[in-house]
Amino acid sequence: MIKRLRLFFGLLTTIILCFALSLKLMGIVAAQQPNITHPLTALTAAEIKTAVAVIRKEKPLTDMAAFPLITLAEPDKTEVLKFTPGQIFPRQAFLVVYERKQNKTYEGIVDLKTQKIVSWQKIPNVQPAIIASEYEIARQVVKSDPRWQKAMQKRGIKDFDKVQISCWAAGILSPEETATGSRLCRTLFYYKPGWNYYGSPIEGVLATVNLNTNTVTYFTDNAIVPISKTNWNYDLQSLVKLLSPPKLLKILQPNGTTFQIKGNEITWQGWKFRYMMHPRSGLVLYQVSYNDGENERPILYRASLSEMVVPYGDPNPTWSFRNAFDVGEYNLGLLANTMELGKEVPENGILLDAVFANEEGEPYTMPGVAGIYERDRGILWKHYEYSTQRNDVRRDRELVMSMTAAIDNYDYNINWIFHQDGTIEVENDLSGIVLAQGTAAEQETFKNSYGRMLAKNTFGVNHQHFFNYRLDMDVDGQANSVMEMNVNSLPIGKNNPLGNAIVVEDTPLTTEKAAVRDADIKHSREWMIASAEKKNTLGAPPAYMLMPGSNTILFPVEGAKIRQKAEFASHHFWVTKYQPNELYAGGDYPNQAAPGEGLPKYIADNESLTGEDVVLWYTMGITHVPKPEDWPVMPLHKLGFKLSPRGFFSRNPAINLPE
């Protein structure tokens, strides 16, 4: 009897220990759950570890397997909109897994509560974004290649450590490269007279590296071009002669900030929204709404930078491949910089951290990658009445949320700006270092029309920067319609005898293909996203207008390879019916992608846009013809657009702002 009792209690103890171990494993996620109070909360470090552990346990990954992307698998939009605090909600992680030796890409979704893979599929004929280790692989492969060593020696470079090697996505592929399906990158070279090597490009040499076999598959060594030996370091010690600095300007908020942060939810002056740092897109906003004093009214469900493209305008084969898709080819979010108060963000701001995953699937915290602050922007509204000498003025306060990213030579600052008059503004700040080309010229001759001289032996190639923003609009609800507004003149006639008439014409954009449009300053063209179900006090649908700022056209001609690959940049305005998996204007995998991915495919079914849940895609760009004043670091260039209320409010929403 005693033996049986011992056996029973021993078995019971074993069961309890196994159950406790299971609870401990589940606790990796469960311990974090109290801090995750909303479905759109970013993955925690523990959740990233869990997701990777589940994949490694259930799938036979090799030692070479990499995780180019790990992020929240965003829950169903309908469920998020119905969510109430305290409600239980699913948590899933989305992972991209790349097997380099096999040259295979997989997408997986892991349920973090059950710790099971709920989706796993091989994605054929695609290449994920370039990952960190591949930069060093490319450098080592090239440096060990005898052809490269000989090319450097021909140019008088014997110390190879004096050469900086920069790894770029392959860009436009030759038919032969496309046929192989291999994972490729191309390498650029700079001599290092100082730490700022961008002023000394080594022209005429280009190496294409096969990242599957770790070999140089294509090598170009053209005519020798003089290499600038000028030291373009721009630290204060190198510059020697300095400007007189302005006197100290302090930005203070002695009573604290007006905005409030609760988890990833931010409220300020009637505005409310959530944010997330996405490893690919960078700063993403969710559920943007405005409280008009009576109701909290939705405007945007999700807003993000969708894709970029930077095409260079020199047809030389060592330059013509340079067409960087900075979001999809390099994972812009992972390249976000740690910012500093008093520098990128004013001293009254707050810096926010983010949790990312490296290519091994290990979580890490990146400090200060997002910043939020208030700033004064001059006058909000004003009227001076001469008859009474009454002067009514309100100062304009803005809330700015921003991130910065350095992508090789260029720096980008992405700002989401909230105004007290109900306007949302996007402002991109471009700075950094012009991608220079070496030249034998020492003076500007204007003979090379592909750009302009920056300095002696240093040439700036004409290029463009395009940004596409995805804006999932929910103006007073999900049922929206889209209208194009054009302003026209009328000819002189009976009804317009003085020729001063100005008329506005509203044209419904009823299908996806009809909604592919371009900016037109001759007609002050804007686009209106209006509620299909509600009316304002004047009987019109409440709406928001997309108001373009400065813009340009894509200059590569019809038939150009880059135009076919970056078709989203060939038009300024697109609209699609909401589909949860249509997130990127250039397609899910723009690295080495075939033409026509992204928006051209999204609109192929030409769905109706009337009274639907619609997504706007706005492309804005600049054309950069470099100049000496851009050198050695380019002063800031601003580019942006606004979403402004039209009939959304019954009056100026800031009219009752106290002094």
Can you offer a commentary on this structure?
By secondary structure, this protein is mainly β. It contains nine helices and 30 strands. The protein has a ten-stranded antiparallel β-sheet with strand order 15-16-17-18-19-30-27-26-24-25. Strands 9, 10, 11, 12, 13, 14, 23, 28 and 29 form a nine-stranded antiparallel β-sheet that branches. The N terminus is likely disordered.
Chain-wise SSE layout:
Layout: H1 2-30, H2 45-58, E1 65-72, H3 77-82, E2 92-99, E3 104-111, E4 116-122, H4 132-143, H5 146-154, E5 163-169, H6 175-180, E6 184-191, E7 205-210, E8 215-221, H7 236-239, E9 260-262, E10 265-268, E11 271-278, E12 282-291, E13 296-311, E14 323-324, E15 350-357, E16 363-385, E17 390-407, E18 410-419, E19 424-432, E20 436-438, E21 451-455, E22 458-461, E23 463-473, E24 480-489, E25 502-508, E26 526-531, E27 543-548, H8 561-565, E28 573-577, H9 599-602, E29 614-624, E30 634-646
Antiparallel strand pairs: 1-2, 2-3, 3-4, 5-6, 6-7, 7-8, 9-10, 10-11, 11-12, 12-13, 13-14, 13-23, 15-16, 16-17, 17-18, 18-19, 19-30, 20-22, 21-22, 23-29, 24-25, 24-26, 26-27, 27-30, 28-29
Radius of gyration: 28 Å
The count of strands amounts to 30
**How much helix, percentage-wise, in residues?**
10-25%
User: Main sheet, how many strands, which sense, barrel?
Assistant: 10 strands, antiparallel
Number of helices: 9
Percentage of β-strand residues:
35-45%
Mean pLDDT: 94
Give the overall shape.
globular
Distance between the termini: 88 Å
Low-confidence stretches: 1-9, 11-32
Strand order of the largest sheet: 15-16-17-18-19-30-27-26-24-25
Structural class: mainly beta
